[in-house]
Write a structure and sequence with these properties.
The chain is of the alpha+beta class. 30% of the residues lie in helices and 16% in strands. The protein has a domain of 250 residues: Dipeptide-binding Protein, domain 3. The strands form seven sheets. Strands 16-20-15-19-17-18 form a six-stranded mixed sheet, sandwiched between helices. A four-stranded mixed sheet has the order 2-12-10-9. Strands 5-6-8-7 form a four-stranded antiparallel sheet. Helix 21 packs antiparallel against helix 22. The longest helix is centred in the N-terminal third of the chain and has 18 residues. The N terminus and C terminus are likely disordered.
Amino acid sequence: MPLGQEVSARRFGASRRSLVSVVAALCGLVAVFASALPSPARAEGVPEPKSLAAAVAKGELPPVLERLPKVPRVMGVDSACSAEDLGGTLNMLAGSTKDTRLMPVFGYARLVGYDTDYRIVPDILESYDVEEGRVFTFHLRPGMKWSDGAPFTAEDFRYFWQDMAKDPKIAKFGVPPELMVDGEEPEVTFPDEVTVRYAWKKPNPGFLASLAAATPFDIYRPSHYLKKYNPNYTDPKKVEAKVEKSGQRNWVALHFKKDRAQRNDNPDMPTLQPWMLATEPPSERLIFARNPYFFRVDQAGRQLPYIDEVALTISNSGLIPAKVANGEADLQAAYLSFPNYPFLKSGEKRSNYQVRRWKSGKGAHVALYPNLNAKDPVWRELLQTADFRRALSLAINRKDINQAIFYGLAETGGNTVLPGSPFFDETLRAMWAAYDPEQANQLLDALGLQRDGPDGLRHLPDGREMSIVVETAGESREQSDVLQLVRDDWRKIGIELLIRESQREIFRNRIKAGSTLISVWTGLDNGLPTPDSDPGELMPSTAEQLEWPGYGMWVETHGTGGEEPGDTPNLAPLKTLIGLHEAWKMSLDEAERARIWREALTIFADQVYTIGIVSGVDQIVVVSNDLENVPEHGVYNYDPGAFFGLYHPDTFHFACPGVDTADKRP
């Protein structure tokens, strides 16, 4: 699909029945692409990236064909610009030095990744095979290298498995849960330096998706780099000297600090991403230089990325929309929200950019999360009662919120899948989501929640006035604005809403501790699922879930932590959902998985475990008129999608003099 066309997000993962044929087809395509690439004998046909040519000429860097794997990944792009005209600096804005972690998301180099049809395809891997949903064989690209030129081989996988995941000093809680199936770890083997095999006794349906995630579960590490901090491979005295110099407690702490690839705060750590951190944080301007050994090429065999470096300038998050309007970013979506649209639109001509509206992939733009594990016993019982959650939902005037905050352009309704999913059902989006304060009052009256007159507050069974504190991470002005309007709506049914803002870490810790009654966040991460998508968001599955962190931890730890759901009638649907998740994991039949999805979605909507308010709110994306190959239309979502990562920013480039390469012109 050309990048300039609208993305049709229909599939999240390959069908298991067609997987063998898909892999075979992919391998065939790779062979065709490889035969079309310049051979070492024709090295002069592939120009060096302009910024690296001098280093190659001086012998400081090998020629491009020696830096690429034998079979690089060939992307469907071919810039009309010459090597002399490609390059440049892509300017972006961030609200914190912690946003360095966005670059591995945008770069989206993964063992396997999603394509724009949301199928999982090889990326870093040359190919892969799956047998019975439980045996995964990964074939690496021969000759591939890390950003420092060291070989990327099966040894990097072996080091992670044997020296990290299996070492109790490093993996204090045992083998990571992503690698456990019903409490059993896999058999991991390394047949040769370019082959890795993971085998379980039972299917592991979420394994590939975890590798393709925006924040992936990485099953490899730069072993040559981390071994320098491991006394099993380096003289213990030398390691101890490094520990003392760093101020860490021991070699394990130092190893952990050096290993934080997803935080992307260590310029010395080798990477496979298109750009690598070149500035020591903290800094007000962080530079990410091109990876000279990056494994992707364009149709002409030219090494990507097209752009030489990314400059991330740190600014006050509240000032970022104004800075973007002033032309200080070439590509920006972070820290921009839909209410900024009119303001940014007015600056297009003055600052030489275009404002684009990409679709959201989330089930709801704003959703409320009643905490079923609240530690206050009186509130806990109410929050676990479906009719109470339904009353809260029915009392919200979503139409007014849509008009007041989103210019009437959003979709009102609950937190469920989006129209692009085969499971979308309008009745589920509308379930318990109509504005009906009369029915809400009837439900509350039936629960015995007495009220001090028609305009007074209701009382809890223990006599306390019903004042609900809704907590927010304080990162979204839209969420706070929505809560202001919900407060007015709930006051009409005798419930007072108070708003508490805190930092994200405190916000999440309070939810896990049961101190929070209701929180506000975005809806389902995956609003466009297919039968092969894990339905874990719809039922307790992890401790990170805002609506049932205790039950999620119980499931995640196989009963060793968290809280087991009781046998009360209020929790019976929850236990049904947990059972459906287990059935989905064991099924390899697409029709059966689809049936499980539909049943789970129906229970999730009817029980109103989350209270969706609006969905379909577009993400504002500002693109410099000089930046080419950025989609006019796309889906902006964290996982799956990796924000810009799905569209491979390594293929974006600046317009070159005398060549009109734009996908579309006004």
